[in-house]
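Much of the work behind modern protein science is quiet bookkeeping, done one molecule at a time. The fold becomes a row of whole numbers, each drawn from a learned catalogue of backbone shapes. The protein below has been through that process, and both of its lines are reproduced in full.
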Amino acid sequence: MNLTDYIRQVSLDDFGKSFKHRAQWNTRLRSTGGRFFPKDGHLDFNPKVYQELGLEVFRKIVRHELCHYHLYYEGKGYKHKDLAFKELLKEVDGLRFVPPLSTASQTPALVYKCYSCGQPYQRKRRIDTKRYRCGLCHGKLILKNQPKD
């Protein structure tokens, strides 16, 4: 069964409505489980969510995107802030947020520390310690750890 067929089946089982567009995997998605495109009605899904979190969590993400889809085509509030969306999502037991993926938290953090006051600063990217200073006391920053690449 391909992805679009699976989405059609979930739509019929959980919503009692048909899904008439296409669904596809999008490997470029990082922090989101899926996306709905109102312009042409298709859905994108993150394959890492399915691979790392399993079918049960993935199905809840599918329900989330189908809430956007069905509400949009019914002319109701389909955005996250809309009451109709929140109610439908709760009714079908969809996920509001994707649980963190292991690949999202693998970025090594750099820890800088102020030489004067000891204030720590975590950064993902290196900073120029000759140019930047402590935000509290304007003291010199020093790199405390070396990330292992």
